[in-house]
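FORM 7B: Structural annotation worksheet

SECTION A. Query
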Amino acid sequence: MTASNLRLPVLADESIARQQELRMRPILNRPAGQLVVHEIYASIQGESTYVGLPCIFIRLTGCPLRCRWCDTPHAFTEGKPLSIEQILDEVDRLSPRLVEVTGGEPLAHPECDRLLSALADTGRQILLETSGAISIESVDSRVIAIVDMKCPSSGECGSNDYENLRRLRSHDEVKFVVGNREDFDWSVELIRQFALDSRTVLFSPVHGELDSRDLADWILSTELTIRQQVPLHKVIWGADARGV
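SECTION B. Predicted structure
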């Protein structure tokens, strides 16, 4: 695999695009049917409308973005190559019927679409947590995409692919991680601009930065149908826990 095989955000700034390409070196030179996997484990789903349910997490290595508040920087480089068949074998050892493919940024892996389809073939419910920077157009229709649009305070707002908001299927969800009032107002404007109010829209406060009570007050002031959430896994195990 060469760098050109990577799926990266489409950016006008060539220097930033090159930087993102270099960040994905850990997943380069993989043969067909293989992905670099940071970890596979069973836990409680901490976010989305599936919050609280037992879930298998498949965390892939590598991300072209560097969000200021990222809570999984260890997934940028740590991991081991596994074939899709090996990943399915690991999933079969665990009992939950809900599976989430996350990262890093899973869609940067050229083989991610094949993995998602293979997982859906098992009859399990499959979620995809993606940054919103890479097109979801080719994602299997059986998979629920949770598209995490990057707000201004993340430092990666310029990486958003806003066409993803037009590519959403009826069962997909949109997520905004909000760090301040600017992020909130920016997110509300996107909801109105793309008529997202009829969809499942999730707002989360940046952990340790924005008081959930403030976010609740702001949501109530809009009269929009927004679902506020808190990262349940951090409430249960703490913000620094890994493998949960």
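SECTION C. Observations
The first helix runs from residue 14 to 23. The chain has one domain: 3-236.

SECTION D. Sign-off
Analyst initials: ____
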